[in-house]
Amino acid sequence: MSYNLSREKTITTTEPETDLAKEYGATEKVPHSQARNMSFMDMLATWIGANANNGTWYMGGVVAGCAFGGAIAVTLIANPIAYLIMAMVGYMGYKAGTSTMALTRPSFGVRGSSLPTLVNLTSFIGWTAVNTFIAAISISFLLKDSVGWAAFGEKGSAKSMIVGILIMSILHLASISLGHRSVKLIERIGMILVGILGIWETIVVLQNVSFSQIIHWHPSASLSLPFGTAMDTMAAFSLAWIPAIAEFTRYTKNKSSATVAPMIGANVGLFWFAFVGIIATIAAAITTGTYDPNNSDPSTIASKLGLGWLALVVIVLTSTTANAINLMAAGISLTNLTKKIKAMPALWTVTVFAVLLTFVPLLFGSFLDSFIAFLDYIGMVLGPLIGIMITDFFFIKKRDYDVPAFEEVNGKYWFTGGFHWPAIVSWAFGVAAFLLLHTMEFFKASIGATYPVLILSGLVYWILVKIRK
């Protein structure tokens, strides 16, 4: 199946200089002019930085429960599918010039889009908290080496973790201080740092444990992860970036920057750091004789393998590159709920909420359990949502959205009282289908439930729309 992404006509306008510094709200269309200031390399760096970080490493450690062969297979199957879909939504953002959540208005209705926006808001605040917590673990190890405080996992580590979370929060505020422009700068620097870290840590791991040992290692039966469950976990991880993509592609100059660049960047970053996480976690299991997915975070593994303080510092910095994107998506989503808050105050607001959420794992048990439960939630709600968005834009509206109508009361996207019930019903159907299929042995052992539910939700939406006509 192919789509004719024909060359769009470029509109040349003269734009005030102040527009170059403007951060556009969710439903504001970024014009085809100097405001479109993100190049192919900017997008490549942004999406390498999005995935070449501690969260991806941690994901590699989690799916290592499938053993090396299974973990690599999951990585090579689940992620290219997700990033092909991301490229499609990236094109939607480039074409319409609005944010991802604004793009839900033609399918869910002007008011109905608030439902996926709330989910998206909680999702990206949650991702920020996840990455912040993992980076705070690195800071706790640095504090142990420098001032003797207990590191994460040791008795009395709460103090070092709290300090770590506060340090990361300051870095996050700096990373989004100028909106997408500061994110662009941080991602350029981050791409270089993660490249150095990835190469170095791969070499160190393979110096400690042979590749043959890694390939032939298997977890105990009690810790083994079913292939389909790993597929759902990895798919949720990668699909979670899709609601952020238009926040950046709306600023791109051409279609290849909006589609090809993020697809390549996200895959490269994901493959690389998931691979590092897989082999590092397995190497630590071989070296210590114990595989514990609770301790597959990069800081604990780096400490076990003796990678030193520099690795911990780079892990902290790469967390900042990933969370800059998370916070951009969350903040702009907030402006889709209300126009009373402007883009920059929205970014600061979601950063504060993310700080508060980061403390939750300190209060309620295992971080791994919280992480897996969060990913199940992501897969459950985002898969059906994305299926509906893709179906509406490419198959029902034929790649033609009327952006001024995004805010019109009683306009073409108002539907029934501001809600488009076929989309809402299809979304609810998709969530119910995920809950059912996710627990079935066939899906747990094979393809997982996320992608089948994504397709099924889009199909149900298409049928309901056709019936209403």
What does this structure look like?
With 469 residues, the chain is mostly helical. The protein has a single domain, classed as Hydantoin permease (Orthogonal Bundle), CATH 1.10.4160. It is built from 19 helices and no strands. Helix 2 runs antiparallel to helix 9, helix 5 crosses helix 14 and helix 17 packs antiparallel against helix 19. The longest helix has 34 residues. The protein starts with 39 loop residues before the first helix and ends with a helix.
Q: What's the layout of helices and strands?
A:
Blueprint: H1 40-51, H2 54-63, H3 67-96, H4 105-108, H5 114-147, H6 158-175, H7 180-208, H8 211-216, H9 227-239, H10 242-249, H11 255-288, H12 298-304, H13 309-337, H14 343-358, H15 360-363, H16 367-396, H17 421-437, H18 441-445, H19 450-468
Helix pairs in contact: 1-7, 1-11, 1-13, 2-9, 2-11, 3-9, 3-10, 3-11, 3-16, 5-6, 5-12, 5-13, 5-14, 5-16, 6-13, 6-14, 7-11, 7-13, 9-16, 10-11, 10-13, 11-12, 13-14, 16-17, 16-19, 17-19
GO molecular function: cytosine transmembrane transporter activity
GO cellular component, one term: plasma membrane
Subcellular location: Membrane
| Structural domain count | 1
Residues in helix, % = 55-70%
- In the CATH hierarchy, the architecture is Orthogonal Bundle
Q: Helices and strands, in N-to-C order?
A: HHHHHHHHHHHHHHHHHHH
Number of helices in the DSSP assignment:
19
Structural class: mainly alpha
CATH class: Mainly Alpha
Q: What fraction of residues sit in β-strands?
A: under 5%
Give the low-confidence spans. Answer: 1-18
Give the beta-strand count.
0
